[in-house]
Amino acid sequence: MTSDAATVFIVDDDQSVRTALARLMRSAALHAETFASAKEFLERKHPDGPGCMVLDLSMPGSTGLELQQDMAAADIDLPIIFLTGHGNVPSSVKALKSGAVDFLEKPVDDDRLLSAIKDAVEQNVRTRRDRARLSEIQERVARLTRRESQVFRLVVQGKLNKLVAAELGMSEKTVKVHRARVMQKMEADSLAELVRLAERAGESSPDS
Amino acid sequence: MNGKTSIDITEDRYRILLESTPLVPWEADARTWLFTYVGPQAADLLGYPVEDWYGDTFWVDRIHPDDRDAAVSTCERLSRKGNDYEFEYRMIRADGTTVWVSDVVSVEMENGEPATLRGLLIDVTERKEAEAALARSESRFAELMEAAPDAMIAVREDGSIAIANSHAEELFGYARDELKGLTIERLVPERHRERHASHRASFHQTPAGRPMGADLVLTARHHNGAEIPVEISLNPVQTDEGVLVFSSIRDVSDRQEAQDRLAQSEQRLSLMADSLPVLIAYVDVEQRYRFTNRAYREWFGIPLSEVIGRTIRDVVGDEAYQTIGLKAETALSGQQVEFEAYLSFPDGKRRHLHTTYVPHTNENGEVLGFFALVRDITEQVLTADEARRNRDELAHVLRVATMGELATSMAHELNQPLAAIAANSQAALRFLAAEQPNTEEATDALTDITSDTKRAGEVIRHMRDLLIKRKLDRELVDINKVVSNVTELLHSDAVSRQVTVTLDLADALPAVSGDRTQVEQVILNLMVNSFEAMSTSEINRRELVIRTSVGDAGSTEITVSDTGPGFHPGPPNYIFEPFVTTKANGLGMGLSISRSIINAHGGRLEAVHSPDGGATLRITLPAGGEDS
Q: Is the pLDDT of residue A92 over 80?
């Protein structure tokens, strides 16, 4: 996945602004989809690929902050670039504090907008990749049997087979068998990689 | 008329006189009880020949057997005493009928012994029968009277009491025997006795029944002297004995007390109602006044004696009744009514009245009438009207006061086409600068730019129309009055913001030619700015001073000084640039517009650094107010 396949979701209640922004996206070879309101965005089916949202903050109806909350609830992960009219300093501050990636004043400079979009999409691609990777690791962990996951937790703490066997009340040979199964299931080539996977999956804590 | 007269008449003449009366004269020997003389009338009395009377025991035998022993013994006993006496008894006539006689006897004594008896026998049958009849009728009356619920007394023409019932005994504290024969005046308090006697006499001349009540509570006197309030009804009855006046006497002490109490409390209420400045009336189901307080009567100009019983319509007049009548009907249907109306009355006055009708119902929920509470609110309404007119005049001042908000939304309106224009022009440049220019997209972008430019122009025109009046409505403006008006308008705002506003107004300020409303807008704008600026000042240091004075060349100067944080460092007049603001939500248009207004008046609006740190804005308006 790259930023080339990204979609820019433009939410603005003004038809001509929507059209103009979408045209600006096309001129920069970006794919754009337009929505007249946050509600429409939440209701209409839209691509689940990477991208970002360009949102008019001074729109009537749902506020940008509400939309962010609604998106979180709907498990939509899109960075938002806010556009605002003149002098809306307090709401801009609020928007930034609540996680907007950028905040631009209308009328907006094309270079600034396009670079903000590029940054936001890259960030989104990164987050999505990380999330996908994490869920893959978690899936692998889920495939372990109870015994295997016990062995997995102790091994990644750096304990030797002998110690693991003593702790779990099994033979060293059995530990070796489990350990091999863990490496195989976790698709790890080395102990170092196994430890890294455990860290990513949050399995490294001795208490867990 | 007896034989002892000294008139010189002969024996014969004496006898003729004696014998021509219906009385029977007689003489008898007191020892033998034999008649020695009997008058000829004796034959008529008993129907026996006179000779028979001289026979042995004739008199005794003729006496009624029931009376015989008593008559004989009375005669013997009294004769022996030697005094004249009179006694009555019955005798049996020859035809067997009974005659009542009265025997009047005179005794002549000899040697201490009665010797001769002389007397007259008088036929009293008629009187006796009348007495018996009376006794019978009296007992019948007595029975009836006992059954009556009230004390009853029958009074003869001479005022003596003939009969009384037991209620009368109780009421007056006399035994019945004591009452009988007592004159009726004894039952009347002494102070009324004389009058009562004369009333009684005239009543007997033209006797006529008088029913109980008849609006009259009289006073009776108890045996012990106590006075009792009573109601009396009189009924004259013709009896054998003459006219008897039967009077029923009802003790109304309880009722009287209750009435007295009621009257007292009514009096108190009416006193209270009279002292209230509200018009109060009570109206019955026929819409007739039953009570009015003094304010009510004075307001309508009707004396007390004329208002009770008159209808509402009569008092308020047909025109006002058109409104009032419907409300009164609603009240009489049991609903409380409250209304304000501007009404015309018969005397030509037109007043605003605030009226409440409260229905009065009994315990069964039936409406008996309603209370009317009326306030004349004409003055308040007029004052409120005046205030409203002032408010209307300042209404668009307030619109301008909120122009900050208005301009914010205007800025958004303007921003949208600008944003679209910017995006389209940038897109067009990109499409044209590409290795393979896309003229189609570029053309579309430029077309959109054209229409958005028009749109932006309309927004700006619209905004200007709203914010700035095209023409000044010039008049001579009293600046001091303008300042006072605006201060008054902002009074509650100042109070809630805890700002002390002080006016320092010059006495002889020349009137300025200008648009009063626009000048008011400017002053209001400056004051509101100061209020907001001082919101961060300490509460006891929020002071606003507005000063008017005569400046150079007869100009008028108005300064508005506050104790807020003052201006930013640097030339203070930058604040008049559009979109310069220190307020979080401000647009920076207020001072800019204010300045254009003052400039249009040929004057100046300047910011001055106050030596003590606050902000001062100075308006200078030229004498005569020429256009710049």
A: no
SS (H, E, C) chain A: CCHHHCEEEEECCCHHHHHHHHHHHHHCCCEEEEECCHHHHHHCCCCCCCEEEEEECCCCCCCHHHHHHHHHHCCCCCCEEEEECCCCHHHHHHHHHCCCCEEEECCCCHHHHHHHHHHHHHHHHHHHHHHHHHHHHHHHHHHCCHHHHHHHHHHCCCCCHHHHHHHHCCCHHHHHHHHHHHHHHCCCCCHHHHHHHHHHHCCCCCCC
> Given a cut of 90, is residue B445 above it in pLDDT?
yes
CB contacts of A109 in chain B (<8 Å) are 422, 426
Mean pLDDT of B598-602: 86
The tokens of A134 are what? 């994490």
ipTM of the complex: 0.74
pTM strictly above 0.80: no
Across the interface, do A19 and B426 touch by the CB < 8 Å criterion? no
Identity of residue A76: I
- Residues B530 and B569 sit within 8 Å (Cβ to Cβ): no
Whether A107 and B427 lie within 8 Å, measured CB to CB: no
Residues B273-282 pLDDT 10s: 777 778 888 8
Cross-chain Cβ contact B431/A27 below 8 Å: yes
How many beta carbons lie within 10 A of that of residue B125, not counting itself? 14
B contact set with A (CB within 8 A):
408, 411-412, 415-424, 426-428, 430-431, 434, 438, 441, 444-445, 448, 451-452, 455, 579, 581, 584-585, 587
**pLDDT for position A63:** 63
